[in-house]
């Protein structure tokens, strides 16, 4: 699914557009839906589901960051300049895009991202891929505790948790295996020091999928990157959408 959103009459002509890059096993809707109306008040927002997510056909071979970045540029619908918000795997797509098209990227916001996953996360990725071949309910019982922060889970009733587990089981994108495989192969540690664009890196405080320490290492490799943290797990669109949107808006307004 491609997505473009704006609020007519409220967008400054010189305000760069905004591109959204979703995470592995996600979609634009799942990772960003609550944010899009908020972010669309000041700028046009463009997004696209990567292969195997939403209605985008599944890839016939391994995914490549270059291809995902180019798909996002096409989704920009002719915009000359844009900021990019990446989430999880989408952070690597955003960085790749900025390195390949530096004249077009005005700013980056990288949330729950990584330069390269650590050994603990690699074990989780391999378990994720193994469970994709089996029962979706088992996969959901693995994914939800890893993604949703403990404070949020404690606030959920048993019925809410059961409903969320069922939703996750029913909405696993068919291309999740290829996307998780890409996560395991990503290594941007050599490229990040050359990044020359205003960047905000946001850690997710209760994240067990991509730990805040892993995201902090990403921030340390980006020259001049700012750091912020959300009181959420690896599901900020569910756990802290307003706070996430506010961090993005404040940063983009500040860097102009």
Automatic annotation (TrEMBL):
Domain AB hydrolase-1: 16-240
Keyword Kinase appears in the UniProt entry: no
Keyword entries, A-Z: Hydrolase
An annotated Gene Ontology molecular function: hydrolase activity
Gene3D superfamilies, A to Z: alpha/beta hydrolase (3.40.50.1820)
SUPFAM superfamilies xref list: alpha/beta-Hydrolases
Full protein name: Alpha/beta hydrolase
Species this chain originates from: Saccharothrix yanglingensis
């Amino acid at each position: 699914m491609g997505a473009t959103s704006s609020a007519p009459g409220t967008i400054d002509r010189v305000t760069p557009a905004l591109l959204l890059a979703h995470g592995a096993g996600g979609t634009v809707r799942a990772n960003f839906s609550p944010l899009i109306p908020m972010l669309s008040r000041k700028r046009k927002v463009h997004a696209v589901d990567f292969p195997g997510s939403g209605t985008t056909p599944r890839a016939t071979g391994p995914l490549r960051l270059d291809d995902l970045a180019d798909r996002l540029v096409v989704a920009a619908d002719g915009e000359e300049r844009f900021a990019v918000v990446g989430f999880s795997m989408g952070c690597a797509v955003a960085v790749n895009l900025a390195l390949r098209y530096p004249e077009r990227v005005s700013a980056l916001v990288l949330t729950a991202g990584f330069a390269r996953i650590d050994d603990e996360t690699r074990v989780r990725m391999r378990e994720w891929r193994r469970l994709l071949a089996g029962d979706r309910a088992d996969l959901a019982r693995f994914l939800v505790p890893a993604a949703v922060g403990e404070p949020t889970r404690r606030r959920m009733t048993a019925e809410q948790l059961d409903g969320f587990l069922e939703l996750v089981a029913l909405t696993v994108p068919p291309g999740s295996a290829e996307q998780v495989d890409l996560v395991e192969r990503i290594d941007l540690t050599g490229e990040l020091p050359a990044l020359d664009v205003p960047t905000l890196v946001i850690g997710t405080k209760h994240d067990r999928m991509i730990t805040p320490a892993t995201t902090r290492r990403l921030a340390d490799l980006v020259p001049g990157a700012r750091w912020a943290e959300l009181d959420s797990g690896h599901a900020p669109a569910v756990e802290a959408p307003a706070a996430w949107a506010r961090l993005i808006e404040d940063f983009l307004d500040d860097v102009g």
